[in-house]
């Protein structure tokens, strides 16, 4: 029983480490999204430029969502929840 408890603790600790790493990366991507939005809001962009900024934001959002889902412990742990 003690070995099982220790194994569970190690699994949880490993998950916490992976989650913290992912959250750091997610934070960096969210900051980049904010910079892009601020850039777009403070300038008069052409339709093409606006589309490019939105495309980058969409890519970053997809990456954030994928990282969140891949490191979530369960459905309730997800940032989207």
List descriptors:
81 residues, mainly alpha
Explain this structure to me?
The protein has 81 residues and is mainly α. It has one domain. The protein contains two helices and no strands. The longest helix is centred in the first third of the chain and has 40 residues. The model has no long low-confidence stretch (mean pLDDT 92).
Domains (count):
1
Query: Main sheet?
Result: none
Structural class: mainly alpha
SS field, number of helical segments: 2
**Strand portion:** under 5%
- Spans of at least 5 consecutive residues whose pLDDT stays below 50 are none
Itemize the secondary structure elements and their pairings:
Layout: H1 2-41, H2 47-71
């Amino acid at each position: 029983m003690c070995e099982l408890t220790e194994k569970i603790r190690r699994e949880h600790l490993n998950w916490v480490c992976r989650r913290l790493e992912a959250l750091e990366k997610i934070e960096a991507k969210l900051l980049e999204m904010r910079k892009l939005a601020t850039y777009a809001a403070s300038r008069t962009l052409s339709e093409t430029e606006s589309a490019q900024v939105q495309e980058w934001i969409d890519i970053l959002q997809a990456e954030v969502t994928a990282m969140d889902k891949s490191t979530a412990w369960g459905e309730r742990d997800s940032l989207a929840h």
